[in-house]
Amino acid sequence: MPDMIDRRGLIAASIAAGGLLSAGSAGAAEPSPADPKLGPPPPGIPRIELRWAFCVSIFFKERIRIRSDSGRVFVPAVGGEVWGPRLQGRVVPYGGADYAGAHGLDATYALQADDGALILIENHGYMKRLDGKKMPRVPAPPRRPGEVPDQTFDAPPDSVVPLRMRLMPVFDAPEGPHAWMSRTVFVGHGGRYQNPDHTIFTYYEVL
Amino acid sequence: MREFTPPPVTTKDKVGQVTLAYAFQLKATFDPKKVEKTPRGERVFQGITGGTISGPGLTGAVYPDSGGDHGLIRESDKVEDLYARFMVRAANGEWLYFSHVGYRRPDGYFRIQAYFDADAGGPYAWLNDAAIIGTAEADDDRNEVTFTYYLAL
Question: What's the ipTM?
């Protein structure tokens, strides 16, 4: 996983995210027409710093596909956890879903902080394969009882198919200690894992 | 409410990394603000009158009067919830759709998330699947805003 680091490397990641403004290690693997030209800004251009806010794990049990041009896939969240420096808690069980489609990721989940506060997240973004192939859009074959789902089908783990998932979430938080989330722009990273089927989202505050 | 106990996973010690690459800058000009007082706050419309885009990722110009900002200054915290949309003509003649959401706070913080539509087969197709964030700097006396866009990789 070229763009995952362990927690010990977090300080280095923060520097890479906010300070160096490099094209990124994952960028080298992707044949993006934009990457070669882009890089650090010239002098006089405003810079941005990112700061790791928290991670969210979300667990899944099924994907329901609609056979249309929308490519819509309904992926309910069974539950999950929230951890990190600025928010700790859980994903409310069955408290939301991804309705991803041809337009990209389109998820709404309810998070619950350790103090009980409910926070809604609207997660927009994209997930694409770095090998240039398209995500399959045909419906999956029906599953027999007890059959292990084919997780390589359309949301494979990063270890099977190199993926890039990036997010531009919006949070709706109540007044109180979490209100800052409703007035801060975020950007995020997603990583796919299997056994069990889950995604880890990492969110950065755009300072 | 159904309950769920997350299984123990080893991925909790992983933190995904995001790096930023400078993409381009837009210097935009707007009409004076039109303010409507709604129960949720002040809806502020500002039509876009023009602008120029330059940088390593894109060169072009805003198509005048093709949109603007329909922001809402929230009653509760006076933060402007930005919603700006307009059309851009790239230097190669291609039309691009720009859409932005973001927050402009009374303390001066002004940051955006940007979404784009570009020709599927064109040189700017990478804008269609991209996470792009940016800074904004407003000069309210002159109705000018400078947006600086970074590609998140």
Answer: 0.94
